[in-house]
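PT: before anyone asks, these are the final sequences, not the draft ones from last week. 662 residues across everything. Please model them as a single complex and drop the result in this thread when it's through.
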Amino acid sequence: MAETKNAPLVDIRHLKKYFNITVGAFQTKPLKAVDDVSFFINKGETLGLVGESGCGKTTVGRTILQLYKPTGGEIYYDGKPVKTKRDLKEFRTKATMVFQDPYSSLNPRMTVSDIIAEPLDVHDLCKTKEERRERVLELMNYVGLNSEHASRYAHEFSGGQRQRIGIARSLAVDPEFIVCDEPVSALDVSIQAQVINMFDELQDKLGLTYLFIAHDLLVVRHISDRIAVMYLGKMVELANAKEIYDHPLHPYSKSLISAVPVPDPKIARANVRIALKGDIPSPLNAPSGCPFRTRCQYACDKCAESMPEFKEVSAGHFVACHRTAEIND
Amino acid sequence: MSLLEVKNLQTSFFTDAGEVRAVNGVSFNLERGKVLGIVGESGSGKSVTAYSIMQILADTGKIVGGSVKLDGQELVGAGEKVMRTVRGNKISIIFQDPMTSLNPTYTIGHQLMEAIMLHTDRNKQQAYERAVEMLKLVNVNEPERRMKQYPHEHSGGMRQRVMIAMALACEPDILIADEPTTALDVTIQAQILELMQSLQRELGMAIIMITHDLGVVAQLCDEVIVMYAGSICEQGTADEIFYHPCHEYTKGLMRSIPSVDSAGTKLKPITGTPIDLLNMPKGCPFAPRCDAAMKICIQQRCERMQINDDHAAACWMNVKAAMERQSDEGEEA
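LR: through. Structure below.
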């Protein structure tokens, strides 16, 4: 495993996605959902992406797969840029997505086998009907669905099983890289654990690389090799999963990690939470400089003037904060 | 006498497909100033238990048996007139979704004052003052300006604060919180839980916390009830439940949550899917999913058995083992 985890498979440089929002009758204003985000994902690795709602984590996932057209920045896959339509078509046979909501992401008019085979049909990957059927059954087997489920419709399944169908669909083109957008947050605890294990097993078996987007930090900590934290469209910290949990450097990561409810009464009662003031500002009126400064207890004048650079402070540990050195003595 | 005594509560929904026993023989006592957590997955009957206490069930739902006593007064069958004096005054509820539980066409102030004027004999001016005071209590900044705003102008966390302010405006003895933080982000969740905790200490009310998040339970609750398929599988103090779980379902739940140390290892999930309430088995409802199920589990349902003063469970294997272990310890001591 160690060797395969070295080369960056996905390399994102200065990714930007602005949405134009109508304000007033004739005016639009850019909403900076993702603003200058750079990171890479190694082959065979899981990168967890966490942050609160509205921080742009889902937009990052969708923009990488170009479900949204990026406003700026480059996406390199396996060393090659993804730019032209032809690049994109090829890229999409290697990179797929699992969506958050297992209820709205499956077409209620299609049978399970048609849902799973849709990517095969789009990319023309199966020559005969027989081949297509075999492939669908193989995929269903991967995700633990019975072959007799193939002719049923999505509404006949529970949330956990629907998510399995969604995962089977994302595996159809035999991808190397999967963007998992909150794939377990709509599921019950016991089902969630089954699906998390399945992601683990599929990764071992098929050598997959994941971008795992979630807001549940315990889940992300469990599944990820490295974790990136986003706030208001910017990436504020990125490090090894254990490192970021044990020694978070950015004030936002610190409070985020301290806010996780630990399922152990003694630890939970002793836990000192770093409470944040107020709510996330609207991304339409993002604060100048560092986006976190309005809620940060360490904010100073410099934070209002300029956005801190996202730089490596120790091996593999990136953080964007002017006062990293001062507040982590 | 306990503040709230629920005995053998049974609630069914009468649907076209048949009778769904959503709550099937739930009993518990709630003392003044305590926090009780009810944990379970979707469909376990935790919310229906709360709605039955408040008697705010949907039209198809009906309490078919059992009793709910508030301060010694029987509520089941007491009639709508009595319930109207109970709801809001003595028991308040906050719902999961702060986005839909406020009326979008009225201002926050209007809705708060309406609740206050309905339940107390304050006049408009007094109600306004009380509403502002309540908003201050739940840490809403600029309460006077917020009073004039509509729900869509507030964030999710802010709306949940308004809901809490409304629920607490008449100083109820019991606050039922039905997944109050599930729709919120972690940092906002931490703010709301902290707020509930400090209000509970300040006002001395009892809280029934309904949640699927064991982390929230660990942080907040004195006592815990674990529900599965409409009945209680285990009940006890938080420490007992977390450190000495005595039901296979509770154990399975604990194993299913990723912890800080579980990275790199496999979780041990509960196999299978939750049970269909229309086709309940004869024996233990959890037996079809239980790895440790024995013959008796399939044939006969285990009644609730007391393990010690702080702990009761309904699981054939674990209860016997726990009791033996305790009597051994007792002899040794």
